[in-house]
Structure formats: C-alpha cells, structure tokens
Please model this.
Amino acid sequence: FVTAIDHVGIAVPDLDAAIEFHRAHFGLEVAHEEVNEEQGVREAMLRAPGTAGTETQIQLLAPLRDDSAIGKFLAKSGPGLQQLAYRVSDVDAASAALREQGLRLLYEAAKRGTSNSRVNFIHPKDAGGVLVELVEPAKDNAAH
Ligand code: CMX
Model:
C-alpha cells in the first residue's frame, strides 16, 4: 500500500536557519511552509529544483513548544533525522492493516498533517527504531 517515499523529517531548533543551510549548501528550495498548532510545529517542505510534483521532500520541523513531539525530540536527541514518511492511498486502511499485524499506531484516528493530508504514525519501537509516518495526500493535492 506504500506508493512513494513522501518525505524525510529533520528536527531543527531554528527553521529559518535550517532553510538557509539547505539552500546554501544543497540548493534545495522551499516548496511549502506552514504552522501546525496541533502538532506543535513550524515546518517547511524542501525539494530539489525542477522536481515539482514528483519529488521526495525534506521536511524541516521546528518546535512551537518545548512539550511538543519535536521539542522533546530535540531535548533528548538533539537536531537530526526524526521521521520517515511513506505515502499511502488510504491511511485508514493502511493503519488498520498494520494494527492487524500487531504494530502500534499512535493515533486511534488519522490527524491532519502537512497541506491537509491525513496522517498516522507507527511507534518507533515497532518499526526498527524509526518513527514511520503514513501520509494520505489531500485529494486536491495529489502529488503530496
Ligand atoms: N525516532 C526514533 N525513536 C524515537 C523517536 C523518533 N522520532 N522519538 C522517540 N523515540 C524513542 C525514544 O528514544 C524512546 O526510546 P527509549 O525508551 O529506548 O529511550 C522511545 O521511542 C519512547 O520515547 P519517549 O521519549 O518515551 O516518547 P516521546 O514522548 O518522546 O514520544 C513519540 C515519542 C514517537 C510517541 C512522539 O514523538 C510522537 O507522538 N510522534 C508523532 C507526532 C510527531 O512526530 N509530530 C511532529 C511531526 C509533525 C508532522 O510530521 O507533521
């Protein structure tokens, strides 16, 4: 049911500084920026130039609060890779199938992710130490 690697998420203390780092050293450009209050993040999606619509993105995640998932991650592990996100066509079906296989999903029901996508997460302890996000893109935003 995985249709693509949607993005890889990196926890950063300062979003603007991280965007500038990725622009200056790797030439990545900002495809999208938003604040997600529920997740406690200010975030940016980056892509390589000329890849719009087909690319796997890099998600930079900065905390709005110390007690958010990213705030806690930074306090415990410091800046670095925080999540791997798989694109799926139906997050409810994917979550149900994985639950059936004995994996712990973090949310009972999918929550709102980037660009009005619907998301759920597999607990890192059930996925080889990797926080795996499942992303069902919004219907009007099929590429992401
Ligand atoms: N990757 C790998 N392992 C992780 C992890 C991560 N991102 N976050 C926590 N862990 C590990 C911890 O190191 C800990 O391991 P040990 O027990 O061996 O020390 C274990 O998982 C449990 O961690 P914890 O500190 O008890 O739990 P937290 O309170 O830190 O919560 C988690 C962890 C995954 C439940 C929480 O980060 C969460 O709910 N994440 C989902 C939401 C999220 O990440 N939102 C931000 C992104 C928003 C977006 O993508 O749009």
Q: What stands out?
A: Residues 9, 36, 39, 41, 61, 69-70, 72-73, 82-83, 106, 113-114, 121, 124-125, 129-131, 133 surround carboxymethyldethia coenzyme *A (CB under 6 Å). The mean pLDDT is 95.
